Every structure is written in C-alpha cells, then in structure tokens.
Amino acid sequence: MSRAKGFISFEGIEGSGKSTQAKRLAGYFRSKGKKVIHTAEPGGTNIGQKIRELLLEPENHMEPLTELLLYYASRAQHVREVIYPAILDDTIVITDRFSDSTVAYQGYARGIDLKLLSRLSDIVNPDLKPFLTFMLDLDVEEGLKRNKKASKKDRFELEAVEFHTRVRKGFLQIASEEPERVKMIDASRSQDEISEDIIKIIEEQWR
Ligand code: TMP
Q: Which of 66, 77, 152, 171 holds its CA 20 to 30 A away from the CA of 188?
C-alpha cells in the first residue's frame, strides 16, 4: 500500500482537538495557494453521514461486527466518492480519522482480531495510506472532561474510561510501529503550540 503525498489524517481519542487542528492545517495550505478539502470519518459523504447516525445513536445496541462493517462501509464510500477523486485532482485531503481509528477502536478496544481488520481493509481500501498522520495524544480522563461540554453523548462517549484507555494504547502502538508516517503530538498544550508543531512537521516533510 502506498502513502499518497496529498493525504493527511488526524487521529486521537475523544476530546483531543483533531477537528480544530485539521481546520487550522487546511487554512495553512489554503494560505499557500493550495487546493485542500477537510473531511471526516465516519461521514464525509451523504451515505457516510447516514451511517454515522446509525453508529453513534446511543440507543442502538450494536454487535461489534456490525459496527466494524459499518465503519468500513462508510470508508468504502468516502474513499471512492471523495478521497481518490480529490487526490487525482491535485487537491490535498485532510481527514479527521481514518483507518487507524478502526484498528484502535474496533481492534484494540473492542477486541476484534487485528488480522480480520487487515483482511477487510485490504478489500475496502487496498492502495491508499495517509502520507502523514498526526496522532494527538492526550490523557483519557482529560479528553473525556473536555468533551463533557457536548450536551448529548454519543455511543462511544458513553463507553467506560477503560475502553478509551484501550483506544489510546492502540493508537500508541500504531505510532510505535510506523514512526515515519505517524507523528505523535502532545495535545495537552494550547491550540497554538499544537499547530506550530504540526506546521513545522509539514514544512519539513513537504519539500
Ligand atoms: P468523531 O467523534 O471523531 O466524529 O468520531 C465518531 C466516533 O467514531 C468516535 O468515537 C470514534 C469512532 N470511530 C471508530 O470507532 N472507528 C472508526 O473507524 C472511526 C473512523 C471512528
């Protein structure tokens, strides 16, 4: 699987500030005159938005395998409808979450066999990997506290701290396995400090 240069993902636990940083990075590229889109998973397409609602609705008691297949369904649509065409059009794609979230949440936290994830991923998304992934790392309790401001909790925000701790461990494991692609960012700092780090890395890598 090849890393597409114009494809960047943001990953991290709940409340780690991914969307804010993804938006800021998109603004940075725009200021340099580049074409850029900021998208997200689950979601990113009309079908993906509907799948997102199914996935996050707190009343839905969902089997782990159903959950996994819905994330892959959303990705299958997102990759083909949005990501590939944008990359072919020389547009930089910044996505809030991608396949590392599936490995961390459905693999490490739900306990689904990582080999099954890898087999399905080869079908859904055989040849596209982010060029860079910013892993916004934060203490789990701090992340959940930041998220408390949201009035209605989704199915994942309602999970126990232990679940989110497994997610974080999964992300740290992924980062340790692929240090070239995955850049760890200390997300406990101010938004400005975090974006400065991110832009520094982009400027180093984008030569
Ligand atoms: P969001 O809050 O970042 O929009 O993401 C919605 C939830 O979906 C979040 O709790 C993480 C979860 N998720 C997975 O469990 N697996 C995945 O593959 C993705 C993309 C997200």
A: 152
Contact indicator for 110, 55 with CB cutoff of 8 Å: no
| Mode of pairing for the β-strands spanning 3-12 and 182-186 | unpaired
Among all chains, which residue has been given the structure tokens 């080999």? 115
**DSSP H or E run through 40:** strand 36-40
DSSP per-residue letters across 65-124: HHHHHHHHHHHHHHIIIIIHHHHHTT-EEEEE--HHHHIIIIIIIT---HHHHHHHHHHH
**Cα–ligand 1 centroid distance for 193 (angstroms):** 25
Q: What is the pLDDT of residue 178?
A: 96
Q: How far apart are CA 11 and CA 171, in angstroms?
A: 8
Indicate if the pLDDT at residue 72 is higher than 80. yes
pTM to 2 decimals? Answer: 0.96
List beta partners, residue 136: 12, 185
Question: Which residue CA neighbors atom 17 of ligand 1 most closely?
Answer: 102
A 10 A CB-CB count for 142 gives 14
Pocket of ligand 1 (CB under 6 A): 14, 41-42, 71, 96-97, 101-102, 105-106, 156
